[in-house]
Amino acid sequence: MPGRFIFRSLSSNARSGIAALEFAALAPLLILTFGGVTDISIAIWDHMTTAAAVNAGADYAVYAAQLSLTSSGVATYLANVAGVVAGASRSGATLSTSNVVVRYNNATTNANFGMCYCLPASGVFPSVTAACGSACADGTTAGQFVQIQATYDYTAFSPLDAPFLSGSYTDTALVRVQ
Fold first, then answer.
1. Cα separation of 117 and 113, whole Å?
2. Which of 30, 95, 101, 102 is the most exposed place for a label (fewest CB within 10 A)?
3. With contact defined as beta carbons under 8 Å apart, do 144 and 176 qualify?
4. Of all helices (H) and strands (E), which one includes residue 25?
5. Is residue 125 over pLDDT 80?
């Protein structure tokens, strides 16, 4: 009987050792899987946050342009729109005004103030002006536009995810303000 007890004792110890080996073999895979899911989730959150901040800036750009925008006030207007975008960013993808570029009629100054354009479907800003309020070829009306571009640099937490997820994420909006 004493031999039998020893055999059972060795048998149960061997089983617990196998479980420990299985866990040791699978733990790195589980950590990489959960780490990757976390990195992807944070990258998506940061991208959504940047997009929401750009949308807030676009809303403000349309609103503020309706409040007697003058040629001398374009620089302040552009800085205010950039400030709204930076202020609307949330934790994670925190933007500063240096990450935001705002253009009025494709210029960062008042150089194109009062000019109107017809935007093609390609989204590339044209260099040819049109008479304000005139009909464009696609049936829309020529107007003035604000372009907002925010860039957020994301760095993955896991070095294995870095080649796939790290980089600059850019969100843009183009709105007609007049």
1. 11
2. 30
3. yes
4. helix 2-65
5. no
Asked which of 72-81, 119-128, 139-148 is least confident by mean pLDDT, the reply is 119-128
The one-letter code for the residue type at 21 is L
Residue 175 CA to residue 126 CA, distance in Å, equals 15
> Token digits for 41?
């989730």
Length of the chain as a residue count: 178
Per-residue tokens: 95 = 């933007």
Q: Return the structure tokens found at 172.
A: 């843009």
Q: Residues near 146 by Cβ (< 8 Å), separated by ≥ 6?
A: 58, 61, 62, 65, 81, 102, 103, 104, 174, 175, 177
pLDDT at residue 5 above 80?
Answer: no
Write out the two tokens for 44: 């998506």
Mean pLDDT of 11-37: 76
Q: Sign of the C-alpha dihedral, residues 63, 67, 73, 76?
A: negative
**Residue with the two structure tokens 């100054």:** 109
Query: Helix %, strand %, coil % for the chain, to 5?
Result: 50, 20, 30
CA angle 85, 67, 145 (to 5 degrees): 60
The average pLDDT across 21-28 equals: 84
The two tokens of residue 111 are 């150089």
By percentage, how much of the chain surpasses pLDDT 90? Answer: 17
Amino acid at 96: S
